Amino acid sequence: MILLDTRHDNPQTAIRMMGGSMIADKRLLGALRNSRLVDNLRDFEINILANLIDVQYFEVKELVVELDDDPLKDALMILVEGEIEVSAMVGNEPVSLHLEAPGDLARVISFVGGTIMNIRTRIIIKKNSAVLLLQRSKLETLLHSHPSIVYCVLHNLVLHVHGVARRKNAEKEEMTKYVYRTQGLY
Length: 186
Known about the structure:
The protein is of the alpha+beta class. 33% of the residues lie in helices and 34% in strands.
């Protein structure tokens, strides 16, 4: 569990529950903020959302294969530290992501699409890693009590996916220019 510490006007401090003690850890909240999922949320709303998030640690070369029956099945992954490769087959289309910066997101399709889509995933841990996991079912518990939090998170996810699509399209255009040597750039 992560709690936002708003005492002493310090909104940048996160508290991680471990056993019965609280440990301050700015990296966890930093990763959440870097992910941009909490854009346009107030501190108390971030605190509510943070209480739904779990922290998972992975060791090097740990391989999680075929997450169909795994508790991560509908979880959004937010990298805190480390390096992770995520490969998925969405229908018959391969998708891969390389997470290396705090706040990088993975498993967005599984989080949003859920059981409707046929997704097979492999996660390869390149460096010891820590991730934040937000289960879709936990976010859905806020639908009646805090719908604005759910709206903002989903809105920010759409903006994230749109940004990824724009970057990938720009990369494709640059590669096309390079391969066909158009516009005299290369």
